[in-house]
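Structure in, sequence out. Go:
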């Protein structure tokens, strides 16, 4: 991969609880990559800040932006709308910044259609027991939400074949190193 003048676009997907946010946060920090904040109609979790973790929108606000062509991609995930705003991505790539999108598999394929050079990275745990343990350990979701996310993880795993590479998130250190290597190679 040679960089040219533009930044590279990375898509990170995989079942909820696999560790995408944890690893991407550390890698962004290590490599100086800005967060591309998504929009969602889901309610904020305790401690989440509007404009930082997500742009928290009502369904009406979300659909108005969609109608206005403001989304690069959007999808319904676990019963809520989530979408990537073009304003969080396009200018940064043009200015030579790398962008990491932590989005679901439906969104990942939409991005790949529009940016064929986007590099798709799939995250998963070694076992489904480990996924459940992490979802529970996060202590952010109700039992109903955890069950929904576990059911949906099976569907998400079917999309792994469309991704360029899979990182099995065993240890934080190894997974960070693996993602960093991909992005650093893109910068050479
Ligand atoms: P996702 O963004 O994929 O939904 P999170 O990053 O929120 O997942 O991680 C889910 C939970 O698992 C969090 O509590 C996080 O601290 C923990 N976690 C993430 N990576 C690991 C790992 N390699 N080993 C153990 N726990 C992890
Ligand atoms: P959470 O509710 O845990 O923050 O996110 C749930 C899932 O929504 C994540 O696993 C992530 O894949 C997906 N997601 C977050 N932002 C976006 C987005 O902008 N677009 C799409 N398609 N999915 C997203």
């Amino acid at each position: 991969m040679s960089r040219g003048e533009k930044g590279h676009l990375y898509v990170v997907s995989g079942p909820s609880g696999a560790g995408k946010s944890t690893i991407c946060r550390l890698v962004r920090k290590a490599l100086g990559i800005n967060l591309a904040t998504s929009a969602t109609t889901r309610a904020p979790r305790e401690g989440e800040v509007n404009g930082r973790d997500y742009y928290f929108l009502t369904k009406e606000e979300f659909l108005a932006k969609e109608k206005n062509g403001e989304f690069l991609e959007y999808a319904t995930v676990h019963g809520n709308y989530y979408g990537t705003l073009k304003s969080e991505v396009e200018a940064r790539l043009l200015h030579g910044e790398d962008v990491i999108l932590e989005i679901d598999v439906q969104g990942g394929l939409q991005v790949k259609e529009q940016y064929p050079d986007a590099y798709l990275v799939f995250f998963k745990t070694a076992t489904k027991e480990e996924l459940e343990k992490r979802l529970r350990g996060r202590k952010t979701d109700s039992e109903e939400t955890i069950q929904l996310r576990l059911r949906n993880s099976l569907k998400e795993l079917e999309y792994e074949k469309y991704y360029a590479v899979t990182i099995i998130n065993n240890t934080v250190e190894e997974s960070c190193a693996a993602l960093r290597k991909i992005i650093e190679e893109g910068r050479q």
